[in-house]
Amino acid sequence: MKPQSTPSDDLLMFQAHFDQLLNPSHPLIQLAGQIDWDAFEAAFCELYCSDNGAPAKATRLMVGLHYLKHTFNESDESVVARWVENPYWQAFCGYHYLQHQCPIHPTSMTRWRQRIGAEKLAELLKQTLVVAVKQKHLPKAELKQVNVDTTVQEKNITYPTDSKLLYKAIVKLGKAAKQRGITLRQSYVRVGQKASIKAGRYAHARQFKRMQRQLRKLRTCTGRIIRDIQRKTGQKPDEILLQLLTDCQRLVDQQPGDSNKLYSLHEPEVRCISKGKAHQRYEFGQKVAVATTNRRDWFVAALLCEGNPYDGHTLAKTLQQVERMTDVKVTDSYVDKGYRGHDYQGDAKVHIAGSRGKHLTSGRRRRRKRRSAIEPKIGHAKQDHRMKRCYLKGLSGDAMNVILAAAGANLAKLLRLLPCAWRVRLTWWRMLWQTCWYWLKWCQWTMPIATGRNAVIG
User: Fold this and answer.
1) Chain segment 183-208, per-residue pLDDT in tens
2) Residues of 143-161 as b/e, b for ≥16 C-beta within 10 angstroms?
3) Measured between alpha carbons, how far is 411 from 127 in angstroms, rounded to an integer?
4) Residue 140 gets which letter from DSSP?
5) Residue 2 has pLDDT above 50, yes or no
6) Does pLDDT of 458 surpass 70?
7) What is the pLDDT of residue 392?
8) Given a cut of 60, is residue 216 above it in pLDDT?
9) Which of 2-16, 40-54, 441-455 has the lowest mean pLDDT?
10) pLDDT digits (tens, 9 = 90+) for 59-114
11) pLDDT for residue 455 is more than 50
12) What pLDDT is stored for residue 243 in this prediction?
């Protein structure tokens, strides 16, 4: 059913209200009053029915928990645990009295994300930009000029090796057969484990012929289990088992020089992407495209680029999402040399780093130099807002995680700006008061002297 409204406080009327306990100038309290929470209700209402099932959890609670999760770099479990301990987090999520138990289980956040989807979750990013524009932290004119770049969002998998993947396939096939009551001729678990350990040791010792011998043994064992299961299930295995058999057969058949290799059995969509980093030559995950404002570095777009496409072929989709998020037409986009040969056909002018600009004004030259400001923003989004490693399942999880990370980065910036704005006002009033005080002191010091002179002259 449709989400329930903010929880009733009738049973808690004799407890102290948050207005009596919390500091009203706290950044989270101020920010909670500036966000349009009704916009989320309107955006998500079509995903619920009106007369079927139990009432869903309050939308403000779920949105607030996801904001807090990616703003403060928490997991589903830790954000729920900290929510109970922090009354400011409870007030941010719409509660008025102290709660001693969280109203949801951490798994409810997973089910809520799956219901909403990545396309609707973009509303969380859009609302952060609405608040920034409304509070005059982000002038609308700056939304016309953006920096665009791509990066890799790694998946939560170990470094893939042939021996590790083949042994994992043996274990998974044995468990799947046992669950379905299939008796295998041999499970090969102990044989496969021993071969996997030997292959790793031979690779470390650079004894590659011996390593290849152990890999052939692992492939042989995996192929025997696949054929044994196929014989005993007949022509109609269930869908999950069929997918597992297909992936394991693909793992047995793939060669080192293949282009579309399998790097994980539980995340078969993972791609190997080379980014030219000195400390990490290859990254295993999905490519994502992000866009920030050219001057003040607000995230205005974040989307998944499935299948590791060329950077220039992602520019059109990125700028389209920028215009959807901001409702402003983009006039200039600043990109690096990886976007040479792009296929963008829109009205925005694309400025490629390093290109000649003899006839540019000084302002445009400064904006071109600001292109590299997106690099540290990506680094902060990875280290501080959970974009470095995606723990959510599948391509939909990748798309949701990058959107939420961008929203969390914008929300953290809003929280930093709120106390700064208050401090600026205090500083201005302090300077005015000090100026008036010095002026009064100067008047008190000069008036007796002037009076004495007039008396002497008289």
Assistant:
1) 999 999 999 999 999 999 999 999 99
2) bbbbbbbbbbbbbbeeebe
3) 10
4) G
5) yes
6) no
7) 96
8) yes
9) 441-455
10) 999 999 999 999 999 999 999 999 999 999 999 999 999 999 988 999 999 999 99
11) no
12) 94
Judge whether 401 and 390 are in contact, CB under 8 Å: yes
* Ramachandran angles phi, psi of 301, nearest 5°: -160, 145
Enter the tokens of residue 8: 């009733």
95 lies in the same domain as 236: no
Between β-strands 145-155 and 389-390, what pairing exists: parallel, antiparallel or unpaired? parallel
73: left (phi over 0), alpha (psi -120 to 50) or beta: left
State the burial class of residue 301 (Cβ atoms within 10 Å of its Cβ: 0-12, 13-18, 19+): buried
Q: Rounded distance, CA 73 to CA 70, Å?
A: 5
Do residues 216 and 350 both lie within one domain?
Answer: no
Give the residue among 356, 335, 343 at the shortest CA–CA distance from 292: 335
In the chain, how many domains are there?
3
User: Residue 40: which residues within 8 A CB-CB, separation 6 or more?
Assistant: 59, 60, 63, 123, 124, 127
Based on its alpha-carbon atoms, the radius of gyration of the chain, rounded to whole angstroms, reads 30
335: left (phi over 0), alpha (psi -120 to 50) or beta: beta
CA triple 384-387-389, angle to 5 deg: 110
Burial letters for 7-27: b for 16+ Cβ neighbours within 10 Å, e otherwise?
Answer: beeeeeeeeeebeeebeeebb
Residue 117: closest CA among 284, 304, 300: 304
176 and 230 share one domain: yes
In this structure, which long-range contacts are made by residues 85-91, counting pairs with CB atoms below 8 Å and at least 24 apart in sequence?
Answer: 87/18, 87/21, 87/22, 88/22, 88/26, 88/28, 88/29, 89/28, 89/64, 90/18, 91/18, 91/22, 91/28, 91/29, 91/32
Residues 289 and 148 reside in one and the same domain: yes
**SS3 assignment, position 332:** strand
Q: Are residues 14 and 126 in the same domain?
A: yes
Residues 26 and 59 in one domain: yes
| Structure-token pair, residue 119 | 């396309």
Q: What is the DSSP string of 374-424?
A: HHHHHHHHHHHSS-SEE-S-HHHHHHHHHHHHHHHHHHHHHHHHHHHHHHH
Give me the pLDDT at residue 6, please.
60
DSSP at 58: P
Structure tokens, 377? 């923003």
Going 307 to 311 to 313 to 315, the CA torsion angle's sign is positive
Q: In terms of DSSP bridges, do strands 271-274 and 282-293 run parallel, antiparallel, or are they unpaired?
A: antiparallel
The range of the structural domain enclosing residue 245 comes to 162-253
Give the up-direction half-sphere exposure of residue 392: CA atoms within 13 A in the CB hemisphere: 27
102 by DSSP, 3-state: which?
A: coil
